[in-house]
Design a protein that fits this description.
This protein is α+β, with helices and mostly antiparallel strands and 210 residues long. The chain contains 8 helices and 6 strands. The chain folds into 2 domains: 73 residues, Dna Ligase, domain 1, CATH 3.30.1490; 129 residues, no CATH class.
Length: 210
């Protein structure tokens, strides 16, 4: 007859005796952890099951399987998302700009004649409306109307919906990019994941809806 073992269960109670095959089956099922105390019949004192040579390989293989599963999730899930390129995003930006311009006209009225050369209150109001517009739609629906039109959405690096903090940070980066002659947007052309500066700052991506 082979070695038998008693174990201390998760409830603190003593169970057994159980043979080696039963212990291995429980390890495989996740019912026994490496630190679980066992009492081998031949040793007669309690030790962690992972310290026994006959079970070490079971825990080594289990750890490798877990690492493999985690790596598969981390590497494949975000990469399955297809990033939206610069030219397509330009279309959505044009649509959103037209909508926010109309909202600004309704709230404030017509812009001054020298708006292109003079930083005016109209510009401040429009930036405020654009900020509320983008933060609301990105956190509530994952996309502005412009992005909905091109079937795109904003997600974090893991493919999840973004938080309102990310949405605000993203808008701040958007304004900075816009005021510096749009250089922050042109970065999308060269980035592997088609991210602009505002995407990088907020750790977000614009991807196609599945």
């Amino acid at each position: 007859m082979g070695e038998t073992y008693k174990i201390i269960g998760g409830d603190g109670q003593e169970y057994g005796p159980a043979d080696e095959n039963e212990i291995k089956a429980w390890i495989s099922e996740g019912r026994i952890a490496g630190e679980t105390k066992v009492l081998p019949e031949s040793i007669r004192h309690w030790i962690p099951v992972s310290d026994l040579k006959e079970f070490k390989s079971d825990f080594t293989n289990q750890a490798k399987d877990i690492e493999s599963d985690v790596s598969l999730v981390e590497d494949s899930s975000p990469e399955e998302l297809i990033s939206v390129g610069f030219s397509i995003r330009l279309v959505s930006h044009f649509v959103d700009s037209m909508i926010t311009c109309l909202l600004t006209l309704l709230v404030y009225g017509a812009p001054p004649d020298d708006i292109l050369t003079n930083f005016s209150a109209w510009t401040v109001v429009q930036c405020g409306i654009l900020g509320v517009y983008r933060v609301y739609f990105h956190t509530r629906y994952g996309a502005t109307p412009g992005k909905m039109l091109i079937r795109a959405r904003v997600v974090d690096y893991e493919g999840h919906s973004i938080t309102w903090q990310q949405a605000i940070l993203r808008y701040v980066g958007f304004i900075i990019s816009a005021f510096y002659f749009g250089i922050g947007f042109l970065v999308m052309i060269f980035d592997k994941r088609k991210r602009g500066i505002h995407d990088m700052i907020s750790k977000t991506r614009v991807v196609y809806r599945s």
